[in-house]
Automatic annotation (TrEMBL):
InterPro entries: Band_41_domain, ERM, ERM_C_dom, ERM_FERM_C, ERM_helical, Ez/rad/moesin-like, FERM/acyl-CoA-bd_prot_sf, FERM_2
CDD domains for the chain: FERM_B-lobe (cd14473), FERM_C_ERM (cd13194)
PANTHER family (alphabetical): MERLIN/MOESIN/EZRIN/RADIXIN
Subcellular location: Cell membrane; Cell projection; Cytoplasm; Nucleus
Record: residues binding a 1,2-diacyl-sn-glycero-3-phospho-(1D-myo-inositol): 68-71, 287
MF GO annotations: actin binding
Entry's Gene Ontology cellular component terms: cell projection; cytoplasm; nucleus; plasma membrane
Stretches of the chain forming a coiled coil according to its record: 315-464, 518-552
Protein name: Merlin
Record's keyword annotation contains NAD: no
Superkingdom of this protein's organism: Eukaryota
Amino acid sequence: MSILGLKKKQPKTFKVKVITMDAEMEFSCEVKWKGKDLFDLVCRTVGLRETWFFGLRYTIKDTYAWLKQEKRVLDQEVPKDSPITFHFLAKFFPEKVEEELVQEITQHLFFLQVKKQILDEEIFCSPEASVLLASYAVQAKYGDYDPNFHKPGFLAQDELLPKRVLMQYQMTADMWEEKITAWYAEHRGIARDEAEMEYLKIAQDLEMYGVSYFAITQNKRDTDLLLGVDAQGLHIYSPNSKLNPNKSFPWSGIRNISYSEKEFTIKPLDKKKDVFKFYSSQLRVNKLILQLCIGNHDLFMRRRKVDSIEVQQMKAQAKEEKARKKMERQILAREKQMREEAERAKEEMERRLFQLQDEARLANEALLRSEETADLLAEKAQIAEEEAKLLAHKAAEAEQDRQRLEVTAMKTKEEKRLMEQKMREAEQLAVKLVEQSERRLKEADHLKQDLTEAKDAERRAKQKLLEITKTTYPLIAAYSAPPAPPEAADFAFESTSTRVDFKDSDMKRLSMEIERERLEYMEKSKHLQDQLKELKSEIESLKLEEQQQQAGVYSLHNEARGYVQEPVYIPHSNRNSAYMSQMGFFEEV
């Protein structure tokens, strides 16, 4: 076996991973492939035709480098990893993005790269411009703002502002979102490619846009400076200030740039101006500076020439594509507007339908309530009618009672008049009886006086008679008459006694008649007093009954009118008081 047969077979391919701004791709490349072969494969895969802006960048040690297209890939200082990692990035930036970036994919890749540089603070951006750029980024990602869909907090997962801006102000994420959303709502109707172009148009005016910075020294004393290379030319900065250059060399004013190992020489077009020299210690950095200077200068000169046929075709196609997309967007916008109007009309009709349903429901409820109210009112009317009939019946009864009471009152008045007449007659009778009583009393007193005088005269007569009898009887008996027998004497004495007794009996009879008359008078007087008491009680009962009847009449009238009046106290008249006083007088008598 030969020694050559023991040697390991060399692989014919190698793996490559290419990372773009929005994707990762892996390719299997042939060993003999040059950088141009891999670059063209990536551009075809991405669909990119404006290839002169881009390149494949890789990291080597502490710096980066761009893959050269004329050399084989494996012959360059690429990493030995498998797969070899490259970043597909913009190497050169246009002066005016709206004029130079033709394809939509080119705009999109530039937008993503510039946005990342701003967020990573590789490009300085003020807070106000950061918020405006973030609103265009949100428009490019989410489309038109819809408050029904884009609720508060929908940007919580998106990185839209540099950390420096977030730390500069004491504002919460919700406050930043509110500010961005306020601008975002103003971009309604802007398509994604238009929003990305507006983003790039604002970003290209930033001082650090498209500038590649390198550390240099101006002389052997190692004065630290920064070299900036961009589409406009070369710029010299202080180490602490990347915004305002100390000195600038536009491409139109540079006659030649020479490079010898670590020394760069910039020769102005104006020979009167001094030549500017600077130094860079790293060979890889010097080669990178030279590549960027050559590429930017070539693009600068290319912009000032007539576009090639390929670029003209691309611009024409891009113009047609933009016109077609614009037309499609207009049609889409019109359809969207019509759909929104139809949806609004549908919502309005649904709202109107719901409103009409609510109104119908309310009307039905009102109708039911009206029917219930009508039934209730009919029932109340029936009840009121019955109450009216009842009240009319009660009123008729009250009227009958009133008439009856009036008749009763009239009867009562007549009875009262008769009673008063009887009372007057009784009074007159009482007065007469009193007068007769007084007269009888006077007569009785006269009779008593006459009786007393008669008794006194009788007693005196008896005494004189006895005295005469005692003095004269024996003489008469002795002289004029024979002696009488004892029976005759007794008879004479009895006759005398009988005469005397006869006078006593008359007196007694007179006294008895007087006493009987007095007793009869007392009886009559007592009977009259009893009659007066009965008459008084009848009058009081008639008065009480009259008051009750009057109160009944008032209550019936008040019931008929719907209210009740308190009974009125009617005091006795002065005449009744006179009757009472006379009755008292009679009782005393």
